[in-house]
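Open question from group meeting: does this chain pack into something compact, or does most of it stay loose? Before anyone orders reagents, we agreed to write out a predicted structure and look at it together. Recording both the input and the output here so the notebook holds the full record.
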Amino acid sequence: MSKPADQPPPSDMEVDAAAEEKPLVRFSINVLELMREAQMQHGLRHGDYTRYRRYCTARLRRLYKSLKFLHGRGKYTKRNITESTVTDVRFLHIVFYMAERAWSHAMEKKTAGPNAQQRIYMLGRFRKAVKWATLFSHLCSLKGDSRTSLEAEAYASYMKGTLLFEQEKNIEAAMTNFKNTRAVYEELGKYGSIENQLLCRQRIEEVEPMIGFCSRKLGGSALQAHELLDLEKEGPAYDLFKAKIEAVLSETRSQQAASMTEFSWLGRRFPITNAKTRVSILKAQQLEKDLNGANTESVPADKKLGIFDKIFSAYHDARSCIRNDLASAGNAENIRDELNGLDKAVSAVLGFRTIERNQLLVSIAKSKFTKHRDEKNEKITKPEELVRLYDLLIQNTTDLTDLISSGRDKNKEENTFIQEYELKSLAFRAERCFYLAKSYSSAGKRAESYALFCHARSITDSALQQLTNSPDKALVQDLKALSDSCRSNSFIEHATGIMEEENVPERLSKGVSTLSLGERKAFLLDMLESYESALGESNTKTPCRIARFPPPFQSVPCNPIVLDMAYNAIEFPNIENRMKKEKKGLLSRFWG
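Structure tokens returned:
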């Protein structure tokens, strides 16, 4: 058998022709959608960076196994991902999740409040994230399509800006990277599906506060408190510079608190000597200005509730500082009197803001009470929930008026405040009675509902008589509307009750006419041998006849009673001769 002759090697033109015949495969990844879906589904919806880091680790392990891209057994063998390695889109996913794991680890350390050593470690993880993000951008530019390459470039720019922003060494370069990210997402947001446009818009909104913070830093202008509060957003991007905002705000408040020497409440002034108490009260007052500002109508209810929580936290901190000062005041009567007065004033403001917050909750519940279902498919508010909220308001007003009236010598402002909130408590009682009547009405109890509507109207009318000269026109209008509602609902309940009473004989006769003395229809368990339906008709509410429950009583035969009458008449034979005789010894013969 002859050997084939050796063939000459291919020429350069043949190699180029073969390369042209094989088109280069371009991978496509929607980077922003992939990132947002992974983050929202695995912890970052609630700011849990630890859970997201563990998810990235588990995802990387699955990718390694599916691609058989393992790193040896026992001893770790490093395997780099290069352009020639990327033969599947999952190799790009590996690089992406490596960057995400390093970033989430850094954010986990940052949100935990790192010390100096942990901060060095955190910056190291940010550098690792930048390294992997840069490699991801490079590989996407070589192996991905144009959109994937552009999104990867924006992702890498964001990571670089994050590192520079955290290092605080080159704010200008950080702002440049953030602007590049914004520019890319602005272009990408003009095309694609509506979901993609919304994602790009959200990403731009996350980057905007960071650009604003950098520009104010570079401009050298002092960052005002209201400007910093405007930068507050939700999400991972805000977590990055949340600590910086808090540091700047605390520094600003400390400077302003130096000039704050007293606290005013209802015509009384209380001196403040503790610096921490000043800062806490000043923080609460600034939040109150944001809550009661000119644009408060445009602020959503959820954000208002968040501001209320911050106000309560600030006043609680101030009260704890005051009580610590009281514990260390000793026997100095003047200092103790001033601190007790300040503690009472802060507690009164805390109760006042609690009433405002509960009124906001009532307005939210009322807006859901009037509609059946909204676009978000939220459940409607039951009247019992409003009754519970008004119970809280009545308790809050009672506690506040008791606190204000506990002093011996009350001034004019305190007396006016007590009268105003006693009338508000009366209005809250009327509202509670109205929604309690609504609750009874929904349960079909017409008599109780009618009586409660009439009682609510009488309370409302008595409150209106006391508010004839009140400057609170909004409260007067609300009470007038409540009185009209009580009147109309009482008429409706009265008429509905009469109609139901008129229909009672008809329903009774209809029910009696359906009674039968004959045998009832059989149940399913009684007719297993025959094929008959045990279900009721589809247009009626007849229950299914599966089995009798509780089961009926069944007759059970008793056990026979046996009386042994012949026992006494039987004469038994004498069997003494068959019994064993007992042997007696010599001594027993004498003594028996």
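Observations to bring back to the group:
The first helix runs from residue 12 to 21.
Confidence is low (pLDDT under 50) at residues 1-7, 15-22.
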